[in-house]
Amino acid sequence: MRSTPLVALLCLCAGRLGAQTSLVLPAEYERAWGSPSTMVLGANSTRTQIVFANPFPIGTVLLGIGLRDSTGSTDDPGFTADLEIALSSTNALPGALNVVFGGNVGSDVTTVLPRQLVAIAPMRANRSTGAFTPIPFTTPFVFGLNGLTNLVIDIKVFGRSAGAQWATDRALASLSGRAVTTGVGCGAGTITSTSTLGNYVVGSNLTVALGNAPPGTLALLTYSFDQQEAATGVLLPLSLGAIGAAPNCDLMVNPSGGFSLYVADLFGAASQSFVVPPLVAHSGLGMQWGYFVPTTPSNSLGLEITANRTIWIGPEIVGPGAGCVYDASSSATPIGTVNANTVPIVQIVRA
User: Fold this and answer.
1) How many domains does the chain have?
2) Number of helices (H), then strands (E), in the chain
3) What percent of the chain has pLDDT over 90?
4) What's residue 18's pLDDT?
């Protein structure tokens, strides 16, 4: 008996299920934070249809997705979400999506996660951009068997348990940049930043400042474009308590980006300023101050550290490879709001 092309492909896929890889889309947000939103898990009843153009080859087997809780300075508790997820391959374009959800769905639509309660784990304030909540599929999806090369991820949230504080991390197009303090420090020192143009764009004079440190102490400013890993395969945060720093001291950026040394003044302040060059545009930047204090039995290294300052240099661009249709108030509506300038950040697990 001769196998059909579909049967042969599915047999090939079955042999590959043991090896899994993941892909973050949009890719430029893998090591940089996005912006909070009410999409997907960010509200109690939502429908979010995410479209990615040409994300991977036809025949790729998808086993699950991951979603990311937006960064902040507080721990977010765990909760349960009542979810349903369907996938399809489509010719719908991220920049020209239909306001009718059904108008973007491909002919191979598959319910990869039938409606069920999914446990969403708690999220620490000090966390990596690699900290995604995994949602495995009960049914794998083989991409593009209908010959279409764009992916639709259709997520319905019917409800969340009490106490959920999740805000879905997303890519958000903007002509300007932005800055936010992420995580918590382990000392009195604080980190702030300002931009002379007011919006963190190319050509701005960017100043990153330390405040409230002990006067006259040595301070180190660490900076990096990587807020995901401390080293290859090792997710941030990197605990410095293990080497004698103050308890709960977490490095939130990859230290390979380098650091600058300063001495805090009589007010416990220090700062660094630089002009944002053109090559930094559309890049997420993490900056964090560490400063030395007199050693104690619980802090033999004499090091304390601030939170991380996450800075995005504008302009920030989302399209043309990604877009979404969403309704942040109802999972049942057939019509949503089309937006090619914002999309949830998704980790896709592949065989």
Assistant:
1) 2
2) 1, 25
3) 86
4) 53
- Do 210 and 336 belong together in one domain? no
Instruction: Dump pLDDT digits (tens) for 224-254.
Output: 999 999 999 999 999 999 999 999 899 999 9
Residue range(s) defining the domain that contains residue 237: 178-312
> What mean pLDDT comes out for the span 81-109?
97
Ordered alpha helix ranges (H), the chain: 5-16
C-beta of residue 158 within 8 angstroms of C-beta of residue 333: no
Strand partners, 210: 191, 270
Q: Are residues 199 and 281 in the same domain?
A: yes
Domain check: are 286 and 256 in the same one?
yes
Confidence of residue 14 (pLDDT cuts 50, 70, 90): very low
Question: Computed over its alpha carbons, how large is the radius of gyration of the chain?
Answer: 22
Pair (66, 183) in one structural domain: no
**Are residue 201 and residue 249 in the same domain, yes or no?**
yes
pLDDT over 50 at 2, yes or no: no
**φ, ψ of residue 278 in degrees (nearest 5):** -60, -35
Shared domain check, 46 and 143: yes
Residue 305: pLDDT over 90: yes
326 within 8 A of 222, measured Cβ to Cβ: no
**Contact by Cβ (8 Å): 90, 153:** no
Q: In terms of C-beta density within 10 A (0-12 exposed, 13-18 middle, 19 or more buried), how is residue 145 classed?
A: middle
Q: What is the mean pLDDT of residues 292-305?
A: 95
Predicted local distance difference test score (pLDDT) of residue 318: 87
250 in the same domain as 148: no
CB atoms near residue 14 (< 10 Å): 12
- As given in the structure block, the two tokens for residue 150 are 């764009």
List the beta bridge partners of residue 309: 181, 287
φ, ψ at 200 (rounded to 5°): 55, 50
